[in-house]
Structure prediction request, 344 residues.
Amino acid sequence: MPLRPSLETHDAVRYHSPQLAVEVRLNTNESPFGPPPAVVAALRDDAPELDLARYPDRHALALRRAIAAHHGVDPAAVFVANGSNEVLQTIMLAWGGPGRRLWLAEPTYGMYRQIARTTRTEVVAGRRRDDGSIDSASLREDAELVVVCQPNNPTGQLEPPDVIESLCSLEDRLVVLDEAYADFCELGPARLMAPHVVRVRTLSKAVGLAGLRLGYLVADPAIVEVLFATCLPYHVGSLTQLLALRALEDDAVVRRRASAIVAERERVLAELGARGVRTWPSATNFVLFDPGRPAEAVWHALVARGVLVRDASRWPGLTNALRVTIGTPGENDAFLAALAEVLA
Ligand code: PMP
Prediction:
C-alpha cells in the first residue's frame, strides 16, 4: 500500500477548468491575439543564441530591470516567477504556512484557497456588501495575510479606493493586491504603496503569454529578498526571461490590444443585457453572467456547440453563474449565437 499524501488534494482537481479541444475557448481569460509580434520575432532570431547548456540568470536581472522601468521602481523592488500563481505560492510559502491565516472575501480567485491548502495556510473568510464590494469591516485582526483581487476574478468588479485603503491601513500584516487584469482598467503602474503592500501582475492576460508562464511582483525590496530566498534557484528559465523581456518592449501593441478587448467587452455586455441576461459590470477581459437557467446545463449545451466558458456556479459566494472570456469579435459572436440558441 503506497504512503498516503499528507495533503488533501481532491478539491484542487474540482477547481481547474477542463481543457477541451473545442473551436471557441473562452474559459481561462487568455488573450485571443497571440503573443506580441516582438516575441515571435525573438523566438526566431534571438532564441537560437541562448546558451541553454548554462543555467539562467538566477536573479533575472535584465528582465527585472525592464519591469522596473515599466513601473518606475527600482529593480530590487521586482520579483519574477513562472506565472503569478507561482508568485502567490512563493508569498504563501514565506508568509503563510501552519499557524498563519489568509483573509479573503469570496467570490474571488479560487487559487488563493488552493495555494493556501498546499502551503498549509488557514483561510479565514470576510464578507462582501450588497453591491459586491468587500466589506472591510469584516477584516479579521488575526489574519497575517490579506489578498485582494483588483479588479476581482470572477466578478470583474473593481474594489472602490476606500476599501483598498482600509484593508491596507493595518501595517502589521502583508496585503497582496493581485492585479492580473490591471491592463483592462485604469489602475496605472504598479508603484510601491507601502512596505507591507505587494502588487502582483502577469503576462498571461493582456500581454498574451499564458503559455510562457511569467508573473511578477512589485514590492518593498526587503520583501523581494525574502521571496528570492524562498523560491528554487534558477526558477525562471532563460527562454522565458528573454521572451518576457521582448514582450515588455512591445508595450504599444499590448495597450492597443487591451483597448480592443475593452470595446468588445462592452459590446458583449450590451448584447447580453439586451437579451435580458443578468450580467456583472466588468473592468476585466471577462464577463460573469447568470444565464437564467441552470448554469451547468447551459455550460454543457454551449460545449456541445463548440463554445467553452467557465462554470462558476459552484464557486464559493456564487450560485448560478457562468464566466466568459472576451475573445475576438468572431469568437464573441459565436458565443452570443450559441447562447441565444441554448436559451431560445
Ligand atoms: N490571479 C488571477 C486573479 C487570475 O485570474 C489568474 C489567472 N486565471 C492568475 C492570478 C494566475 O495567472 P498566471 O499564473 O497565468 O500568471
Summary: The domain at 37-250 is CATH 3.40.640.10 (Aspartate Aminotransferase; domain 2).
